Amino acid sequence: MPETIIQVDNLIKQFPVGKGFFTALDNICLRIESGEFAGLIGPSGSGKTTLLNILGSLDSPSSGEALVLNKSIGKLGAKEAADLRKEAIGFIFQTYNLLPVHTVYENVEFPLLLLKRTKKERNLQVEEALEWVGLQSKRNSRPNELSGGESQRVAIARAMVKRPKLVLADEPTANLDAKNSFHVLDTMKELNERLGVTFLFATHDDKVIQYLRRIIELNDGQIARDYTPEKNIQS
After folding, report:
1. Crossing angle for the helix pair 119-132 and 178-195, nearest 10 degrees?
2. Phi, psi at 203, each rounded to 5°
3. Helix/strand/coil for 136
4. Do 38 and 84 meet the contact criterion of CB atoms below 8 Å apart?
5. Which 3 state secondary structure label does DSSP give 32?
6. Are the beta carbons of 42 and 33 closer than 8 angstroms?
7. Distance between CA atoms of 55 and 230, rounded to whole angstroms?
């Protein structure tokens, strides 16, 4: 039976605005099981990134419960939240966030330095991650020598190198053309199927939506629909 990776109950997130509050998320209830390839979709301002940030322990609910890998996000201290991200969650952002003065190898290696792996362990895991994304030949290149698609594949390798249980991807194709978008999406789809890693996207890109096996549509901070598409590239 699949493991529940994410369990959200009656989650509300409010931000102070003037003398009142803006409700970004309104009574969200959600379950994500291990191995899913799911996406939060909806227009800008619908709450996608806010929810992703909470699930990634980058923010906390105003009320309600968000359990990620059996950890209650709202009850985590700063160190506990950092440990959860460091050990079990991979992040992929639209801006890549690569360290410009370091090589591809060093960028992918960075999460393992935080985990205090030995040099031999790091080398094996980095080489494996670069093989997953097809960038072994670029291991000594720096980010300014890479294309946008290659940079995003480095970001995927960095997210995957520690073999996280959950990968959160926020608009990962926003800065890519169609060809590179599909290459990156094919890479993530293959890693999901081969390694069983759970992927959750926040996106409004139709190219990403074609790949999703589950679509969670947000509108004005609420879940408007939660469904499995009849046909997509997965099938």
Report:
1. 120
2. -160, 155
3. helix
4. no
5. strand
6. no
7. 27
- ∠193-11-232 over CA atoms, to 5°? 30
CB atoms within 10 A of CB 82: 13
The CA distance from 91 to 209, in Å, is: 19
* 69-75: Cβ within 8 A, 24+ apart: 69/5, 69/165, 69/166
Count Cβ atoms below 10 Å from residue 198 Cβ, excluding itself: 23
Task: Tell me how far apart the alpha carbons of residues 202 and 30 are, in angstroms, rounded to a whole number.
Answer: 15
Q: Whole-prediction pTM value?
A: 0.92
Q: Which amino acid is at 109?
A: E
167 phi and psi, to 5 degrees?
-120, 125
180-183 LR contacts (CB < 8 Å, sep 24+): 180/147, 180/148, 180/149, 180/152, 181/149, 181/205, 181/207, 181/208, 182/207, 183/149, 183/153
Domains of the chain with bracketed CATH: 35-59+77-227 (3.40.50.300)
- 29 in Cβ contact with 6 (< 8 Å): no
Pairing of strands 222-227, 214-219: antiparallel
User: Mind listing the pLDDT tens digit of every residue in the chain (235 residues)?
Assistant: 779 999 999 999 999 998 999 999 999 999 999 999 999 999 888 999 999 999 999 999 999 999 999 999 999 999 999 999 999 999 998 888 999 999 999 999 999 999 989 999 999 999 999 999 999 999 999 999 999 999 999 999 999 999 999 999 999 998 888 988 998 899 999 999 999 999 999 999 999 999 999 999 999 999 999 999 986 665 4
